[in-house]
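Collaborator request, handled under Task 6.
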Amino acid sequence: MSENALVIDAGIIAGGMGSRLDGADKGLLEWDGAEFALHIVNRLRPHTRKLVINCNRNSQHYWPLADLVVSDGDEAFNGPLAGLRSLMLASNADYLLVSPCDTPALPEDYAERMFACLESHPGATIAVDDGVRLHPLHLLVPVSLADSITEYLANGERRMMKWLKQNNLVCCDFSDQPDGFLNVNTPKEMQLLLTQKGC
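Structure tokens returned to the collaborator:
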């Protein structure tokens, strides 16, 4: 994709409560010598104009990594869609390249392949498919969809997958790198990650 064609910002969702990891802030966990969030920053920043992190606690730890840090904006904890909306509202780009904070082994070519998929499907919302399942928080998404999330949440909906399917969803094939999307939600998944070597 021509870098001049679209303005693309990066967004990292780190607003969860870590309920299955004893309340740990997953973005601040460490793997391969660095915090999870820093691994994600290193994958996204070189390919985007600015980087925004969504978090609802420990913002002082995230500020050194980002151009801007934003919260969900309320105490409702409406899940990842609320975090995604906050990232969109903080950006005036055309698209956001998004990752959650809990996938530190994100593939090196994540950005390039997502951009290539968008080039083949202009205007689409792009999400990762690892060959087994869809990863609904690994996205290249139009910033203009922020209002649709606001309406969706106001109607009592919170399901990320349903919202994606309503917004021109196209899958980007990463079936050759499924380990790159291991998301750490439990101690067992953390142990599995620790068996992987960073790039």
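The cover message to the collaborator said: "Strands lie at 8-14, 30-31, 34-35, 51-55, 68-70, 95-100, 125-129, 134-142, 169-173. The first helix runs from residue 36 to 44. Please let us know whether this matches your experimental observations."
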